[in-house]
Amino acid sequence: MAKLSELAQKISGALEKKKQVRTQAVHIRELEIDFTLEGLPLAKIEELVSTPLPREQQARMVVYEAAPALHSVAKELVAAGIIGDCVDMLRVFTIQEITQLMKQVFVLSGADGENRVVFSQEVENIKNA
């Protein structure tokens, strides 16, 4: 295989980095529980937030999908008849907490809206000429 140029190496590294699942540990003080949030593929996020459900339920679904450690607990609660749907387990969190968790999922997924594109002043001068 031919040696990659510096730019090709950078892009190759960035593509590899995108394949890695980013995670973050979460601790809920009041409940004394710990779990891990994982980044989700952008297609999965788009699927979840485009469902015809209220925004609050969409947010819970995003957090639920990003916290696989909570799945077995949710199934246990459903089996015991305590909740009707696995995502209902997240009703233990306030909407503010769900929003915080969802934002972190977006960051881990690379969907946080951070703009990485920067234009040089030279381009700005040409554009405004």
Structural class: mainly alpha
Q: Going across the major beta sheet, what is the strand order?
A: 1-2
Show unreliable segments. none
- β-strand percent reads 5-15%
Number of strands: 2
Through-space gap between termini: 45 Å
Share of helical residues? 40-55%
Rg, nearest Å:
20 Å
What is the overall silhouette? elongated
Largest sheet: 2 strands, antiparallel
SSE order in H/E notation? HEEHHHHH
- If helices are DSSP runs of H or I spanning 4 or more residues, what is the number of helices? 6
Mean pLDDT: 83
Supply database-style keywords:
129 residues; 9% strand; 2 strands; two-stranded antiparallel sheet; single chain
Please, could you describe this protein's structure?
The protein has 129 residues and is mostly helical. The chain is built from six helices and two strands; from the N terminus they run H-E-E-H-H-H-H-H. It has a two-stranded antiparallel sheet. Helix 3 packs across helix 5. It is elongated, with a radius of gyration of 20 Å. It starts with 5 loop residues before the first helix and ends with a helix. The mean pLDDT is 83.
Write a compact overview of the structure shown.
This protein has 129 residues and is mostly helical. The protein contains 6 helices and 2 strands.
Please render the helix and strand layout as text:
Blueprint: H1 6-19, E1 23-28, E2 33-38, H2 42-49, H3 55-65, H4 71-79, H5 95-109, H6 121-127
Antiparallel strand pairs: 1-2
Helix pairs in contact: 3-5
